[in-house]
Amino acid sequence: MKQLKLNYEYEVKDGLKVEFVSGNYGVNISGSEDTTARIEIEAKVKYEDWVDDDLSKVVSCEYNKKQNSLTLNTNEEFDIKNIKIDVNVPKKTHVDAKTENAHISLMELVGSHKIQNENGPVFVTENSGDLQITSENGPIEITKNIGDIILTFENCPLSIKNSSGKIKIITENSPIKFGNCKGELILNSENSSIKILAAGFDSASINNENGNIYYEFQDVEKGKFNFKNQMGGIHLVIPDNIPYKIAAKNKLGKFYVGLKGDYDGLDEGLNIGDEKNLNMVKGAGTVKIMAENEYGTIRLVDTAKSKKNIDLSFVGDMIEKSLKNIPDEYSDTVKKGMESAREAMKNIEIPDMSDIMSEVQDKMKGVVEKFSSPEFKEQTEEKINEGISKVVQEVHERVKDRDLTENERTKVDERSRLKILQMLADGKITADEAEKLITAMEGR
């Protein structure tokens, strides 16, 4: 292998327009206070595959001074596995990018950007400006963005943190997570799990099919919030100081009400059967919350009752004991996996225990996939499944000592059994593993 380098440098102005088109090569675009655009390209190539050491044949760059535009294109005729393209530009820069089979990263820019991507991750960090992203088959991570966001994607995990603006999302088959975001949210999804933590939105409209919706309200004095689901739960955490007006409807699912105060339309906190309606008002009722579901639970709780903490430190110990015979060369990797599993078990919410168990199993099996030895892999999978079965049984033992209502215990069993069957249908576990898990659960 030999190392090749190529640099481009141009004096540019604020408001630079960058166009990047690539089939297989990713790019990192970052902003600075400088007025110079610098493009740095590094690659490692095999001697026998490369003749003239000219990287300009792989990455071409052109600056139009009159239009203040910078264009980068890559040539996919050359198959270079190890190439790095770093673009440093003035902060006030707008990016228009089309990428396939590669990542694109934008950092510390002040500008509006348009990104089209397939089969690669998209990262945007510390941007001030609007984002328009279309993507398939690659994760999207947005952190500290101030501006409107329009996202259309599928098969892409999405994470948005510490951002503000009007956010519009159309997606399917994608886990979605928000944290500490403000503004307005419009989200339409299919086959997705949605988790919105510490939400500071002034209004939100979330429509989902075949997946759960979890939404934590922050302090808000007024606004409209609509939640609609078909085959999945709606879980709303509503702090006691919010002046809400709730109108909820459930067709064939259940209600659980853990809020202080009286409500109309239900005789009990948990109901199964025909369509049920619930109405509840607190204070001025200026925060209007509408929730509609067909085949899943609608759960309304305040902050204090949103989670029942339980010490699950025993989980890591149990799994660790079940893997005590792992060879030393794999110990570091396994320990990292253990820590990831422990994080998933923190602040576990009892009625949603089965979701956590699925996440733990996914994380643990992810560790297994990294091992090269087929024999070791087979042995480890067996031990992990054995450990998970013990975890399920142990959690039930710990749960029954808690001050849970009979309805909550019933919910644990129902959700756990349903989740196990769903994992079996999705191919995440085998029939034998499903039988072990259900046996462990029912044997509590």
Short description:
This protein has helices spanning 313-322, 331-345, 353-369, 374-400, 406-425, 431-442; strands at 2-11, 16-22, 27-32, 36-45, 59-64, 69-74, 82-90, 93-100, 104-110, 113-118, 122-128, 131-136, 140-146, 149-154, 158-161, 164-172, 176-179, 182-190, 194-209, 213-217, 223-228, 234-237, 244-250, 255-258, 276-281, 287-293, 298-301. It is of the alpha/beta class and 444 residues long.
Task: Give the biggest beta sheet.
Answer: 27 strands, mixed
**Proportion in helices:** 10-25%
Query: Alpha-carbon distance between the termini?
Result: 59 Å
Which spans of ≥5 residues are poorly predicted at pLDDT below 50?
A: 268-272, 306-312, 346-356
Number of helices: 6
Structural class: alpha/beta
Q: What is the CA-based Rg, rounded?
A: 26 Å
Average pLDDT metric: 79
Total strands: 27
Any overview of this molecule?
The protein has 444 residues and is of the alpha/beta class. It has 3 domains: 2-236; 237-306, no CATH class; 313-442, no CATH class. It is built from 6 helices and 27 strands. The protein has a 27-stranded mixed β-sheet that branches. α3 packs antiparallel against α4. The N and C termini lie far apart (59 Å).
